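Worked example 2:
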Amino acid sequence: MSAITSNNIANSSGITDKNISFPKIWCKKQVIKGISSICYHGTLTYTPNRCSNCGFNSNAVKIIKHGTKLSRITVTKSANLPTYFSLSFLL
């Protein structure tokens, strides 16, 4: 996805973190907890400064990420529907 498209998605959704990228289909209407909702989708990619388990500095050792985690974050309503940001990131 081009930088311009990602920037437009970030501006329209209010998400401004430069480490978040968006898939081709970045916004969907979904049923969450039995209620029709709007859900933005993105992936957080970055290189951590320290290992979250052992505390080693990333300059001293190579940090290897294993697996992903999906978080659903509640954001301000859009079109009078509950709105969520579904963010996946490497662990």
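Residues 32 and 38 are 9 Å apart (CA to CA). The chain has a mean pLDDT of 81.
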